[in-house]
Structure formats: structure tokens, C-alpha cells
Amino acid sequence: xxxxxERMLRYPLLYLTGHLPVRFNDAERRNxxxxxxxxxxxxxxxxxxxxDGSFHKTATEEIxxxxxxxxxxxxxxxxxxxxxxxxxxPTTSHELNGWGDNxxxxxxxxxxxxxxxxxxYSNKDYSSEWNFHPExxxxxxxxxxxxxxxxxxxxxxx
Length: 158
What we know:
Layout: E1 13-18, H1 26-37, E2 41-46, H2 54-66, E3 71-72, H3 93-98, E4 109-113, E5 116-122, H4 126-130, H5 134-137, H6 145-157
Parallel strand pairs: 1-2, 2-5
Antiparallel strand pairs: 3-4, 4-5
């Protein structure tokens, strides 16, 4: 669903990923603000998994402009035990060897409304790992799809 469409307000959880610059127009900014104020959660996952790329820089600017600045989410936040238990955000293979930089992000970022996550931001590229065929996931010590379950449970129960 496009962020500029009113129907985006019908959903409790929205997911935004990509690798190109992110710029909200006025309708998108207005809808995202209304969405999080009404209790929705926006999950943004940087497909590049970096901190200097155009997606990261522009997405974090838009989130700060529209909702609030992002801050580190503590690794003992209830999100990490909403269904499965994690000691913080699961590491992805893309962090370890996907780009060859061994850049591991120890925290996710969040914009909050009270004690609830309104926007969750990840540099981990979960979307690529969630697309792995189940047979390939058997080689992982922790299936990152489980973290996706936590996201959905958290978004639907907070």
C-alpha cells in the first residue's frame, strides 16, 4: 500500500525497505504521522545494511522530520521477547559477509510514542534473509524469520 493513500491507515503494521533515497511527499508525511499517532508501527529495513548510504541518510531524515529522531533501542526491549527470545537484534549473514565490510549493527533504532515503538529502523537487511528458501535457513543458528514473528506480535499487541 502506498504511504500517500488513505487506506494505509487501515493496517497496524507497515513495512518499508529499499536501497534508493527515501523522500516523503506531503501526503505521505501526513499519513505516516497520522498512522503512528493512531497506534500503528512502521518497520523500515535498509536493504543496503549500511550507515552511509543514501537510503539510510534519507530515510532517517524523513523519519525524524515526520515522527521524531531515531534513538538506539535497548537490547532488552520487550520487542525481543514478544514471542521468541533474543538478546537483541539477530545478526544477518549480510552483516557478516554480504558486503565484505563485517559491519554488525548491535542495536536497532526506534522512534517512540510513549513506551511504544512507532517506527523501528534496521540496518540489518532482514528482508533478504526472510526471502531465503526454508532449506537454506537450516544452516543458520538462528532463523531471522523468528524475529519477523516478534515484529508482528509486538505491533499487534502494543
